[in-house]
Amino acid sequence: MVKIINNSVCRGVADKRVGSVKGVVIHNTWTNTTAEQEMNRLENMTPKQLEAGFAHYYVDEKTIIRTEDTYNRAWHVANSEGNNSYLGYEVRGNRETSKVVFLQAEQNVFWQAAIDLHYYGLSVNRDTVKCHHQFSATECPKRSLMEHCGFDSTFAIPTEVTAKMQDYFISQIKKYYDDPTLQPDGSSEGDNEHDEIIAGSPAKTINGMTAKLDIYNENPIGSFRGAGWAHAGKQTFNYCFIFLMDAETGNEIERQQSKNIARPDVNAIYGLANDNKPGFDGSINITKQAGKKAYIKIRLTNDSSGNTVGGAKDVDFNEYVLTIPKRSH
């Protein structure tokens, strides 16, 4: 199972993005260093030193590290449009990197890129999947061009080679984009592995609301269960609702009011009142929704029906998508 680290060591030095994410850019590293070595290098750099360049992600055969928040820019393509509007992924891979290590690192990047494209509501095509050399004069992604296009030259990369490279990246990302259960090792996501991913996922803070998804699975059979915790700091809300959302349309499938569950661990970490009950847990019937891809939304609200009258805050977990199974009756 790939190790995922979210550690924004680049500290937002390139500022927040202006406008929307337009796509992803695949890079290859010029060194044979691991993802954690790259993270440590960036962490020890001054803001001025970081101007030399960094990407949002550094990925090797075992680890995916997000070194900058995806809502921030990164200086990864030496082009203002690319730096502002595209997410950068560095694959561990130069001439010294063994082929097996490089190819697995690539698959890990394709998997993460698919998650991010889903998250930002983008399809997978030549407009959204780019190579570094499409933005500035470089041989990057050098090792990918060697392995998948047979191109190894210091001369300008021909248009037809660029198109071949893009199409390979697109075909690989699309595997994971179309099947969220597929893992970068080529296996399907088993219940235990999926549960580990959800349990180890980071908390998210959006618009003053912080939420963490601890469980998202089919339990019992015929229902999707969502459990975790959510709070809005000193701002209090009367109700918590769990929404099951259609990942393809963004429309609500079903909702359920959650139980109020004591989580003294969360209260202690965030300095919340002892009587606060930020835990949520609920199961939503999926028997009539076969084939849909779904994610969890958590809403804190003052509206007893789960709408937004009187104030509400939402956190979407649309990076974690499950396909509702089809079963014979």
Characterization of this structure:
By secondary structure, this protein is α/β, with parallel strands linked by helices. 26% of the residues lie in helices and 27% in strands. It is built from eight helices and 14 strands. A six-stranded mixed sheet has the order 1-4-3-5-2-6. The longest helix is centred in the first third of the chain and has 21 residues. The model has no long low-confidence stretch (mean pLDDT 93).
Task: Give a summary of the structure in a few sentences.
The protein has 329 residues and is an alpha/beta fold. The protein contains eight helices and 14 strands. The mean pLDDT is 93.
Contiguous runs where pLDDT drops below 50 for at least 5 residues = none
What's the total number of strands?
A: 14
Radius of gyration: 21 Å
Shape: globular
If you average the pLDDT, what whole number results? 93
Strand content: 25-35%
Widest beta sheet: strand line-up: 1-4-3-5-2-6
Between the first and last Cα atoms, what is the distance in angstroms?
35 Å
Strand-and-helix sequence, N→C?
EEHHEEHEHEHHHEEEEEHEEE
Number of helices: 8
Structural class computed from helices and strand pairing:
alpha/beta
Largest beta-sheet details: 6 strands, mixed
Share of helical residues: 25-40%
Structural descriptors:
four-stranded antiparallel sheet; 8 helices; alpha/beta; 14 strands; 329 residues; six-stranded mixed sheet
Please describe the topology of this protein:
Layout: E1 3-6, E2 23-28, H1 35-43, H2 47-50, E3 57-59, E4 63-66, H3 80-85, E5 86-91, H4 99-119, E6 129-131, H5 142-149, H6 159-178, H7 191-199, E7 204-206, E8 209-218, E9 223-231, E10 239-246, E11 252-257, H8 264-270, E12 279-285, E13 293-301, E14 312-323
Parallel strand pairs: 1-4, 2-5, 2-6, 3-5
Antiparallel strand pairs: 3-4, 7-8, 8-9, 9-12, 10-11, 10-13, 13-14
Helix pairs in contact: 4-6, 5-6
